[in-house]
Structure formats: C-alpha cells, structure tokens
TrEMBL record:
One of its GO terms (molecular function) is acyl-CoA dehydrogenase activity. GO terms for cellular component: cytoplasm. Transmembrane segments: none annotated. It comes from Varanus komodoensis (Komodo dragon). Residues 53-167 form the Acyl-CoA dehydrogenase/oxidase N-terminal domain. This is Acyl-CoA dehydrogenase 6. SUPFAM superfamilies: Acyl-CoA dehydrogenase C-terminal domain-like, Acyl-CoA dehydrogenase NM domain-like.
Amino acid sequence: MALHCFTQLGRKARCKLLLSPSWLFRGPLSAHSSSSSSNTADGFPAGNHLIYTQEHFALRSSLRQIIDKEINPFVDKWEEEGHFPAHQVFKSLGKAGFLGVNRPTEYGGMGLDFSYSTAVAEELGNIRCGGVPMAIGVQSELATFSLARFGSDELKREFLVPAIAGDVVTCLGVSESGAGSDVASIKTKAVRKGDDYIINGDKMWITSGCQADWMCLLANTSEGPPHRNKSLLCLPMKLPGVHVAKKIDKMGMRSSDTAQIFFEDVRVPSKYLIGEEGMGFTYQMLQFQEERMWGAASVLEQLENVVQETIDYTRQRKAFNQPILHNQTVHFCLAELATEIELLRSLLYHAVALYIRGHDVTKFASMAKLKAGRLSREVADRCLQFWGGMGFTNEVLVSRSYRDTRLLSIGAGADEVMLSIICKYMGILPKK
Ligand SMILES: Cc1cc2nc3c(=O)[nH]c(=O)nc-3n(C[C@H](O)[C@H](O)[C@H](O)COP(=O)(O)OP(=O)(O)OC[C@H]3O[C@@H](n4cnc5c(N)ncnc54)[C@H](O)[C@@H]3O)c2cc1C
C-alpha cells in the first residue's frame, strides 16, 4: 500500500494498521512501500532513527500531502486576513486522524504514544507560518490533554470525540490579563451552586478564542492554597455570559486569532468538571510538559527551511562579483546554525524517548523549550541579515519566521520560567 493512501483509509483501519504488530515491528521496508520513503530526510534508513519508525514517516508523509494541498496554498491569504478557517482545516485534519494521534481509540484517536505527536509536530513545521501549526497544536495537544487523561467517559463523548474528529474548534484558557507566567495567581472563579458552577473572570491571549466552540478553562474553585484550589472545566463558548471582547492585533502569528474573553455569571453543569476538583493546577503542569516538547518539535522544520532558503537565495544573489554565500562569514554562520538545529533535535528526541518510557522529563522538556525559543530567534535574525532588503519584506519566509517564532520565548512559559525550572532541577534555585 502506498503511503499516500494512508489517510484515505477509514479511522478504524488506520488505527488497526498502525497498531498491528506486523506493521509496527516489521524490519526494513517490505515491498508495498515506495522506496523513497525508506529513508529519513537525511537519507538514513528509517529503521535507524532514534525515535521514529517507518510508521512515523508514513504518518508524516500523509500529513505533508494535506499541508501541500490544503494549507500552504492559502497561508499568505490567511496571514493577510488575520485568521484562518479553523473549522474547515480541522475537519480535514480530523478526518485523516491528525487531531487525535496520541488520544484513545475509543474516542476516535489513534492511541499512539507521544513520539507520534512529535512526528506530527515536526511535519507541521513545514506549514509556511507559525499561526496555523500553533492553533492545530492547541486543538490536538493542549486543550484536550487533561480531558483525555482525566475526564469522565460522558465528558469525553461530548467534548473530546468532536474535537478529535475536527467537528469543533477548541481553545485553552489559562492566561489572564493579570496572570501569565504566574499561573497560580489566576483570578477567574468557578463557584459551585447546586449542580452548576458559576464562572466570573477573564482570559487573555486565547488562541482560536474567536472561533472556538469550547474552552478547557482553568479557574479557582475554592479559597484554598493556590496549587490546590484550581480545577479544569469544559466550557461551551456559546453560553450566555461568555463575551469575546476583542481579537488581539499581533506582530506575528497573524493567521491565528487570539482573543480576550470575559465571563459574567456563566453557568455550566458541574459534570463539566475535568477529573477531580482542586487538581486543575497539577493537570495543567502535566500538560505543559507535552506542550513544551511539542513546541520545540514544531519549530525544527521551519528553522531548517529558513536556513535552506537562505542558502538558495545567497547562492544566486551576487555582491562584489561573487555569490553572497561564498563569503566565509555567511557559509560558516549557516553551518553553525544547522549544527545548533541538529543539537536541539537531539535534545528533543532524548526527552521524548525518556517520556514515552514513563520518565519525568520536566528538566529536558524545559531545556528543549528554552533552546527552541532562543535558537529560533537566532536563526531568523541571522538569516534575515543575509537577505538584505528582501529580508525586510513580507514576501519571504524568513521575515515571517522572525515575527512568528519570537513567541516561543514567551508563550507556554517564558525563557526565564524555563530557566527557573532547570535551576530547580539542578538544585540551585534559591528558596523563597
Ligand atoms: C500569540 C499568543 C498566544 C497565546 N495563546 C495562549 C492560549 O491559547 N492560552 C493561554 O492560556 N495562554 C496563551 N498565551 C499566553 C502566554 O502563555 C503568556 O503570554 C505567557 O505565559 C507569558 O505571560 P504574560 O504575557 O502574562 O507575561 P508576564 O507573566 O507578565 O511576564 C512578562 C515577562 O516577565 C519575565 N518574567 C516572568 N516571570 C519571570 C521570572 N520568574 N523571572 C524572571 N523574569 C520573569 C519574562 O521575560 C516574561 O516574558 C498566548 C500568548 C500569545 C502572545
């Protein structure tokens, strides 16, 4: 079966195929796969890859077809318009299974381990902007993480199944106007009244907040200590009292809508609580681990594309009678950046390999996230320089990357928060 047929199979068939021992543990490629797919992008046999098998590459190759046909041709338009049609794009990704790779099969997911989500995140880096991959990640990884792990069967049927199928758009509501890095200090409250919670407060910077059908909301459900008084709730966005106040105008990630949202006496049934009351902060911290690895994975291909396009441009662009690439300062710099990207990739694979074996990878995930943010800034900035005036236009990937990847050092825990976590694990963070 050719790999491109993979997504055309029904969901059950895909899961069965990916999970069947013959597919998972086959050695070198059998005759039914195309020969070009037997190698990774670097030309190494897929069987020799640190964390990816042939099945990871099959998944990536199927996703690449959707990206090339249904996403990349429209990215410039979506960037200009300041949003992308999330319902339409997610339907297509959901149909092919990409919104539930790491989610249980009973709810429409593929039931695969996190290395497959990493492979998907890497491939999404080939989308020619950061906004669309970010919104996909919010849907497939962030907003549904706790629901899939800790939610009741009833809740999963109501909210998780349509999210995986791509029938709805979801968002994650953690940050507030007064609390971003310091998640414990959020102020939004969900007060229990009879069989309902009454929600009041605000959420800020909410990705896909203008289009979302439901939000995974973090709110204070009691007056107790800040790490034990929070809960996660599934909050339908069309309820009375949910006000999407504004779409935030941003310097980058232009195609992703980002909202500020207010809640005024919003009433949700108590059965919409995810897992146990008071465990929301803990669930959220668990989710951040995956988010940080996913974020690092999602940027690798984009950085490589920026370096490659810079090589292509500087090879044909001449100054002082020679290609710009022939200046040692230019080609050495590009070689250095390529080396750094490879180092980040190795760190990420190390973290993912340990994670899927059940280890606590908080330190490595934080290191990968920190490095991904800093390296993205460096790659975009140094490459942009070699494009001269062209790098300052909106017509090239490097300038979009310069604007989009800047977020990586801020969102999902700023660089300084990552450094604090790493210090804690090194035993050098002073006690308060
Ligand atoms: C485009 C975009 C999309 C987003 N999407 C979502 C979303 O979908 N859902 C969601 O909940 N949130 C989302 N966020 C919010 C994001 O996670 C927060 O912006 C981030 O956590 C930082 O919080 P803050 O902006 O309030 O910065 P602040 O907490 O005010 O921090 C500002 C700066 O202070 C410094 N700082 C903070 N803490 C320390 C420290 N301990 N030591 C030293 N320096 C420190 C850092 O440099 C930091 O950047 C998004 C943000 C953006 C911009």
